Amino acid sequence: MNKIDLSGFKAAMGQYLRYVRGKKIEDASQKDLFNAVSSVVRMLLIDITMETEDRYTKADAKRMHYLSIEFLPGRLLSNNLLNLGIEKECRDILKTMNIDLDDLLNEEHDPALGNGGLGRLAACYLDSLATLDMPGFGYGINYDYGLFKQTIMAGEQRENPDFWPNRSSPWLLARSDVRCMVPVYGRIQGTEDREGEYNPMWVDWKLILGRVHDIPIAGFGGRTVNRLRLFSAWASEDFDMQVFNEGDYFRAVEEKIQFESISKILYPSDSMAAGRELRLVQEYFLVACSVQDIIRIYLKDHEGFDQFPDKVAIQLNDTHPALTVAELMRVLVDVHGLEWDPAWKITTKTLGYTNHTLLPEALETWPVSILKRVIPRHLQIIYEINRRFIELVKQRFPNNTRLVKSMSIIREGGEQRILMANLAIIGSHSVNGVARIHSELVKNNLVPDFYRLWPERFNNKTNGVTPRRWILSANPGLSGLITEAIGDGWISDLDQLKRLEPLVHDSVFLERFAQVKRANKIDLAEIIGETTYVEVDPDSIFDIHAKRIHEYKRQFLNVLNIVHTYLKIKEDKQIPGAPRTFIFAGKAAPGYVNAKLTIRLIHGVADVINNDPEVSPWIRVVFIPDYRVSLAEALIPGADVSEQISCAGMEASGTGNMKFAMNGALTVGTLDGATVEIAERVGLENLYIFGLKVDEIAAMRKHYNPRDYIENNPDLMRVMNVIRSDLFCKKDPGIFKRLHDAVVDFGDYYFNMADFSAYVETQNQVVTDYCNKKQWAERSILNTARTGYFSSDRAIREYADDIWKIKPFP
Length: 810
Ligand code: Z16
Known about the structure:
alpha/beta, Rossmann fold, 2 domains, nine-stranded mixed β-sheet, six-stranded parallel β-sheet, binds (1S)-1,5-anhydro-1-(3-chloro-2,5-dihydroxyphenyl)-D-glucitol
């Protein structure tokens, strides 16, 4: 670890407070102090950024650009201090000033520029790139409003705006010297040149300006600081060019407001394509700003585009930035005058595409009519890409109209639509899924014809998470214990956790490991008390289901088991073997009726159970509002049981599953996403796998009748009847009938009924096993010891070697 000189730390804080905030240190609020410490840390980061940049430039390094419509970096002060290796020293300095660092850490606003897994993955990847000293940079949008804040009123989700300090945050560096110009709207004018060749011209477009802010991304060890570059939209200053009268004047101002709304707000759904024009403009805005910036940087040190794919890699995080295919072609051909064929070679060699979902409702398609209005030149280019591609398909597979139809970028039949996944696949040299099972489904179910055409293009990169945030920072108790036992090499080489395995036979270590978990549960119990006003027992099993609320993730199945357990106590007088606390957290997309109803159901069930003196000594149910990165950091270290019970085949990977397992929770899960690989690595005896598998579900789907399962299982029948009754919604009779009917009358698309009995059995086994405290601790340690593979460092090394061809520059 490089040693960073902090002798000027105090003085720099004082100077900041005095000359930036105009305050004496004794008058500073906690927020002022947070800003002061952060701005001093930021100075250190900037020094290292410049040094890093010199290193990359000198080596003429190939750079990777990670384009993502979402980034969820989480709070940065604690992370930066730890990654720079100055946390302890800084804490001590502050102590001499009577300032408690932990109080300051809590002042930081959680930047919520993402919905969940996809954006958080992007943030973990940036952490690993910097830690591995690799030139990898994030490109995203600087939204004014991040994901909504969730509050609960009478058991219902309310959404409140989350304005984050997106101009004034100490972590944002305004780059007023860099500006992007993005043309939009207008029309195509065809002209013929002297040889009579058709020359399309994009005319009458309007200009959006992209303003740039950078967030420095510090790698662990303090050697490398990369950056996350965020764009915000601004109307061009000469937007008022043609004002002839008052009406025009107001129209011009309205237009300005419209343009500036492009980066106003993050779309709050993680599983439903938004389909609104504003969202398309956001995607295009991100792509156009990024491509311009990437080319500008490349041309600083290179001439022509021959070397472009050797110096530049671009990764498309899902299809949201898939317009990069058309934009890169447009810039190469229209702006820099390349011929189509070399431009196409460059484009496909540069781009890689990561798929994150198979859910049909999440796959993006855009009406041709919208593209025609917003980006007419790109539409033309997409048509040309498609025309050439279909030629190729016809050559390879003559007389096969089915193939042409399935692989065309344009879907005919009714309103013509652009299929963004097809565009991304055709324009990239690599297509990857995010867990082994998911990548197999991408090849064999989602786009089998593309796989047949280009098998070499398809690959898997199982997701990973950064151990810096998810162990070192979130779980200091566990980190300290691990470091005492095996040294601190694990922080940047997580496979070293393997060396904990023999310690399962060390009774002192076992005891201390259990103590760490217990201390984390006490902390969590306090948070639960403050946020839900429910008192929970740290000695009960903490069973946590924290993720977005979605039918495919089956929070409903969890509730069914809770209601079943409740009825066993109430009606059958059967007492469980150990007390349990069922903990839920997660946001529902604002327009997702059944997800929001599920939140109400959890609260309704919680109300009845927690207030029943016969039941509440055994089970309690809490819903912690406003799930976000900082809450996850508090929840995960306190979990005994991790719920990963999605309907098999639906969760692309999951990343919470990895974080829980690393922190010693035992998984109750289906064979879905990366849980399959977690099971393989920790061993079947150290988690609880249950339920239908992907191929079983595929085979059953045609004939599946959920009623058969209800009629043949009196326990399930009883549970479903109670859900339909008004026991959990006395004040709003009938509201849960819709959830009941979704499974009974509308086919139970996610197989809750079919998996119910296996889930109940598994949960009962968990309670039995937990009573053997020593054995539970051993299995918990093995979860930590055997999940080193799920470090994002491993994932990034694979991306770097197989797709990006980038190297470390230490
Ligand atoms: C998202 O978070 C994910 C997929 C997607 O298409 C859109 C969003 Cl916003 C998630 C997957 O659901 C999850 O399984 C996966 O672990 C995560 O992306 C990262 O790959």
